[in-house]
């Protein structure tokens, strides 16, 4: 096997553990220097490949690379840049191959969600046609948990843990205050199309310790009357309740509930979240005092409360990607295959990219309770192992010691390319 | 010394560590059963005393009481209920004394902020006049960090740590995304009158690792042009920035910046936060893509990332309150006295309640940089030790094991009392 370099890029919204995948990948590649020369990372994702802005990861020490395991965000920069279809912009794909050729790159590792799986597949197909074979391997990552075949997606478990813990803590808080003050706490979480993250809020309530939690899923059309009745019921029983609302919740008119056409005093349009909208509905409908929060980036960046399952799996996916490459695989993605729930066991599997690309895994219908406001036992069984275990970063002076890499540029060999 | 029971109540907004004070207090009292009989807690704070709704804490095991140390919120319920002045409602104070008398209570421990310090002082004064002497001791607690004499207030350090860690993590996130997507992240934090909590966001930037952070303090009148210029400057230098905004930031017209007279599509008034307002200002003024979050209750309930300094101090305050009582003190509050910064050392001190009540400690002017958007070295020196150390709760199946006490009611001896 002729020695080739590898290219690695991070794609789309970052997570608390995407760097753990980078860590697994780079550490494993470094153990096989006879086959994989250098690992070049794309600065700001695939844009780095198109503009030939490559990072030489070999310039960073073993210690710095190891610290990626406990550092959230994308250490090399990510991007929201969808490669067009081959028909629409063949030039982009050809440019990729040209850059790979110029830097003797034989391995393409792309770390992302559905879109990047599709890009990965196309690069593999085109490289064959162009007579410069590239082994293209997709490394799964998405807080949305919507990739098919794999049991779950690295990045999701840590968001789920953050939301479960935060929901539990906020519910304890509102329980203390409800006698004379706040009775309803509304927490807005990510999830435009699927309610995976919102579902995690349901984990805060257990058989041993029931908590009054109402979940608003994007899968369930918002019904104001039923929602208010449920909140009212819980507040009457417990004295308080917590509402976990997915940003993607829709009204019956097919619009996002968050889209209320808000205008400021001067008539300017204002962009608000869905949490204040739901809070106002509670106030107007039941006259209850409320508080609301919006977790936004905090939820997906919260490496301080990452799930150990998630960190282990993210690392394993990066490691497996290199191992697959070494075995000669192409156009594949490592997957997490669940072996058993109790005790939780999983192993690394392999999926063909042709079966991953353009397939979105939605939350099964039997994961949502009949009333539409909670999670079923089946959902709980699925989610519970994913938030298991803690994996704390090291601290200094009260702050987590997250690493910033040197990110030294590889000298360019080609001319400019207009994006 | 005749054996007397003790009364303990939690007041105002709860924190991640107010139960650690309860733990220190109850555990210490249990070691002196020859002098302090039982510790009765007020259900929902002082309301529990007025309505004779007392909780017998002796019904909970040593293990359950020990778990209070790592449980956020107020285990006995808190309340927002300000006792009126003696002149306005002498009946309330007399009722308190009557309840204390009926249950042989000789110690009044009140765990709260400025208002409860004032109530505590009044109870002590009135009890003397009424010939039923009560030793009234205030246990400091407030995320607002605005009590005088004590160097800092239990509850604040953990919020500060949560905001510092979250700001760091969100800044790493936006750094990864800025090339093609979000360039500004806006985080709304608590603090209606003082910028202590917002200041903690500044800790995310250190000498070793500078982060582009803009802080909006309630102490500094919001100036749109200067703010946009600062954001623009940082985005040009770093590619991104994080704005930490205090909920209490005011415009030049003396109104809260959050109060934008928002109306929905039907013309109904909507209550929004200040984060979306600031985000919209960034969008309109600079055309930059943004995200925003509102930490709300998550910040003060986040026991999972509590500061060890804070937990230790909260416990020590509860313990000292009992020790002061045993020594015969009355109308006092234990304080945290800073001995040195490096290494951080502190000891328990004592303040007279007459000097605590109705005095609000504001953030010193020299804690804010001249441009109004950052913290000074002096501020950093003050804040840094308060977020030091981690004190993780125990976990089971991925969730913190927070305790719910039995909260068994003490049989009533008196008639009803109308609040």
Q: What is the gist of this entry?
A:
Chains A, B: Its cofactor is Mg(2+). Two copies of one chain form a homodimer. Chain A is an alpha/beta fold.
How would you sum up the major sheet of chain A?
A: 5 strands, mixed
Q: What would the CATH topology of the largest domain in chain A be?
A: Rossmann fold
If interface size is counted as residues with C-beta under 8 Å from the partner's C-beta, which chains form the largest one? A-B, 86 and 87 residues
Average predicted local confidence, pLDDT of chain A: 95
Q: What would CATH call the class of the largest domain in chain A?
A: Alpha Beta
Total number of domains of chain A: 2
Helix content of chain A: 25-40%
Radius of gyration of chain A: 23 Å
Low-confidence stretches of chain A: none
SSE pattern of chain A, N- to C-terminal: EHEHEHHEHEHEHEHEHEHHEEHHEE
Number of helices of chain A: 13
- Could you give the count of β-strands of chain A? 13
**What best-fitting shape of chain A do the alpha-carbon axes yield?**
elongated
CATH architectural category of the largest domain in chain A: 3-Layer(aba) Sandwich
Work out the oligomeric state of the chains in this entry. Answer: homodimer
**Main β-sheet, spatial strand arrangement of chain A:** 3-2-1-4-5
Structural class designation of chain A: alpha/beta
The end-to-end span of chain A amounts to 34 Å
- Strand percentage of chain A lies at 15-25%
Subunit structure (chains A, B): Homodimer.
Family (chains A, B): Belongs to the phosphofructokinase type A (PFKA) family. PPi-dependent PFK group II subfamily. Clade 'B2' sub-subfamily.
Binding site for substrate (chains A, B): 142-144, 190-192, 247, 297-300
Pathway (chains A, B): Carbohydrate degradation; glycolysis; D-glyceraldehyde 3-phosphate and glycerone phosphate from D-glucose: step 3/4
């Amino acid at each position: 096997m002729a020695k080739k370099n590898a290219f690695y890029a991070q794609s789309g919204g970052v997570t608390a553990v995407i760097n753990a995948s980078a860590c697994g990948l780079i550490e494993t590649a470094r153990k096989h220097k006879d086959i994989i020369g250098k690992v070049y990372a794309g600065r700001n994702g695939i844009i780095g490949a198109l503009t030939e802005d490559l990072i030489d990861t070999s310039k960073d020490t073993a210690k710095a690379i190891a610290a990626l395991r406990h550092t959230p965000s994308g250490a090399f920069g990510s991007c929201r840049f969808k490669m067009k279809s081959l028909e629409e912009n063949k030039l982009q794909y050809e440019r990729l191959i040209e850059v790979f050729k110029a830097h003797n790159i034989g391995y393409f590792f792309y770390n992302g969600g559905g879109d990047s799986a599709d890009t990965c597949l196309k690069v593999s197909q085109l490289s064959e046609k162009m007579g410069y074979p590239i082994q293209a391997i997709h490394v799964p990552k998405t807080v949305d948990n919507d990739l098919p075949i794999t049991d779950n997606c690295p990045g999701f478990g840590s968001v789920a843990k953050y939301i479960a813990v935060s929901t539990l803590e906020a519910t304890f808080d509102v329980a203390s205050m409800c006698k004379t003050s706040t009775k309803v706490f509304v927490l807005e979480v990510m999830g435009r199309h699927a309610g995976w993250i919102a579902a995690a809020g349901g984990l805060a309530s257990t058989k041993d310790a029931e908590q009054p939690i109402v979940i608003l899923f994007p899968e369930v059309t918002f019904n104001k009357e039923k929602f208010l009745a449920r909140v009212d019921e819980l507040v009457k029983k417990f004295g308080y309740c917590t509402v976990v609302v997915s940003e993607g919740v829709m009204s019956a008119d097919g619009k996002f509930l968050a889209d209320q056409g808000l205008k400021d005093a001067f008539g300017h349009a204002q962009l608000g979240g869905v949490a204040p909208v739901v809070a106002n509905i509670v106030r107007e409908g039941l006259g209850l005092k409320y508080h609301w929060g919006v977790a936004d980036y905090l939820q997906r960046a919260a490496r301080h409360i990452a799930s150990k399952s998630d960190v282990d799996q993210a690392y394993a996916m990066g490691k497996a990607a290199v191992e697959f490459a070494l075995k000669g695989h192409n156009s594949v993605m490592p997957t997490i295959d669940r072996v058993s729930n109790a005790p939780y066991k999983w192993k690394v599997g392999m999926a063909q990219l042709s079966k991953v690309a353009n397939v979105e895994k939605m939350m099964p219908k039997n994961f949502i309770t009949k009333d539409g406001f909670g999670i079923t036992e089946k959902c709980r069984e699925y989610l519970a192992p994913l938030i298991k275990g803690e994996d704390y970063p090291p601290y200094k002076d009260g702050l987590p010691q997250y690493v910033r890499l040197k990110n030294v540029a590889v000298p360019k060999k080609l001319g400019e390319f207009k994006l």
